Amino acid sequence: MAAELVNLGPNATPAELDNLLIRIDYRPRRTPNARQTRALLEWAGRLRPVFGETDLDRQVDLVNALLADSAARPYISRHDGRKPHLHYADERRPVDERVFGYTSAGLATAVCQDGRRLGSCARAGCRIVYVDTSRNGRRRYCTTRCANRVHVADHRSRTSVPPQATEAAD
To answer: What global pTM score does this model have?
Structure first.
């Protein structure tokens, strides 16, 4: 959820945010209002640096700050016919507070398992973040498309003849 929230971008609407929460099966009780949307998009701005941080100590500090500010208090919940699952904030709290707890706890879990699995696309100009679920954990790009663009550009720069060399040969 943290990566999806960051990738929504800073100008997402309440409806776009609601669609994201529904798509990932978070089941908000109601569509986030304008204040909650602003709060969640600001929170997403705080989540982003965790994905790009390569120094584990700094990454841990970033996540610890998120955990402290979210006041995550895990407990097991059963509702809506679902199996027991963890909640990180009281389910009666506003959606923004619940998402703060959920995403900070999720990032904490990811960092503790292997913080190198949180990444930011290496293609210049791409701002997509991701959780690397590949077998070897060496993902550098958000999609194959971004990787291909970089590799094609690198190939073209190595194989093309500079304009000055062509004019000199004439």
So the answer is: 0.82
Containing structural domain, residue 42: 2-142
Helix, strand or coil, per DSSP, at residue 79: coil
Structural domains of the chain, count: 1
User: Phi and psi dihedrals of 51, rounded to 5?
Assistant: -70, -30
C-beta separation of 110 from 92 below 8 A: no
Q: For tokens 């949180």, name the residue.
A: 118
Contacts of 168 (CB under 8 A, 6+ apart): none
Strand-pair category, 75-77 with 118-120? unpaired
Residuewise pLDDT in 10s, the chain (170 residues): 999 999 999 999 999 999 999 899 887 667 889 999 999 999 999 999 999 999 999 999 999 999 999 977 888 988 888 899 888 888 888 889 999 999 999 999 999 998 789 999 999 999 999 999 888 888 889 988 998 898 888 888 888 655 565 444 44
- Tokens for 110? 């990811």
